[in-house]
Amino acid sequence: MKLSARNMLPGKVVAVTKGSTTAHVKVELASGLTIMSAITNEAVDDLALKVGDTVSAVIKSSDVMIGK
Amino acid sequence: MKLSARNMLPGKVVAVTKGSTTAHVKVELASGLTIMSAITNEAVDDLALKVGDTVSAVIKSSDVMIGK
Amino acid sequence: MKLSARNMLPGKVVAVTKGSTTAHVKVELASGLTIMSAITNEAVDDLALKVGDTVSAVIKSSDVMIGK
Amino acid sequence: MKLSARNMLPGKVVAVTKGSTTAHVKVELASGLTIMSAITNEAVDDLALKVGDTVSAVIKSSDVMIGK
Amino acid sequence: MKLSARNMLPGKVVAVTKGSTTAHVKVELASGLTIMSAITNEAVDDLALKVGDTVSAVIKSSDVMIGK
Amino acid sequence: MKLSARNMLPGKVVAVTKGSTTAHVKVELASGLTIMSAITNEAVDDLALKVGDTVSAVIKSSDVMIGK
């Protein structure tokens, strides 16, 4: 499935922290930068996410702000 | 001003395309990846955004999905 | 690619309206309900979206509000 | 009150799961499809949400992605 | 209809600018502050929005960042 | 850093409630209105947010809906 979201940043999962309903997933991008994602615990289980997984950080362009 | 958004990806503006109210701004990240942002034309003018500018792509963690 | 977004509603494209940078895509869901999506013109071209296409409306759970 | 959000999908609450601050609410749409919403616990209490309630899943068009 | 979104800021419409698909609506809040909203042209027409209208700026708590 | 988000509403923190991963922060605006923000616990710690702090509620225009 191809998605309309314009941003797919490849990287590796470096941390998964589950809360009571929301989980935080840290992904290290190719550049060494890390990006944080907040998704549901259900999504973590459904994707069987664990440290070391190769993933994409997927972001809609309207959710990217610019700071200067 | 420090912001609660967890993701600040440094990069350079490589393209600015203004529509009638919404503009698309392409930012090349350190890793060579590009990320697309959709912001208002007013924001482009207010930040005086132009190609070559050093900027940050700012993204809330709840707006970052994971694909695997 | 499996996505962390929890909602994938199958349907058919019934209208595509391109603006200067943003396009509106109407999708008729199995139930006969229509759902409206606002994506970039670039995404419309990249997915080669046209009326009649079988698609999914993809929505993060944190973007779904409840009205009662 | 009429809302600018373009998508109002009618359905029935089939599950409410409260976390420490965020709750997950599953809504079965007319078509039998279910849609998941993540809202605050405060909203669940304020709307007195419970299984069996007739509700709308309310979604802005800019929050609907397309997958093909 | 009561909505799960936690923020309803009352105000008056002071400007409506339609683009090709997206419109910008400026609302003056009770405090004299103005807040900008980007909605679809269709929503502007559907709500018959015009300068002077009494409205609410409706915002989900997960869409409010904090700057300090 | 100047941000592309168009809305910066000044106010004072009146409550901070941490969940397991997500925190709710209530900000009283100049007008006496309160606005609720849902951010990560990590952001609360990073900004050392506490009751009485002078802050801004930062909101993208595409995240502001209109109700009439």
From TrEMBL, chains A, B, C, D, E, F:
InterPro entries: Mo/tungstate-bd_C_term_dom, Mop_domain, Transp-assoc_OB_typ1. Residues 2-68 form the Mop domain. It comes from the Bacteria. One of its GO terms (biological process) is molybdate ion transport. It holds the Pfam family TOBE. Keywords: Molybdenum. SUPFAM superfamilies: MOP-like. This is Molybdopterin-binding protein.
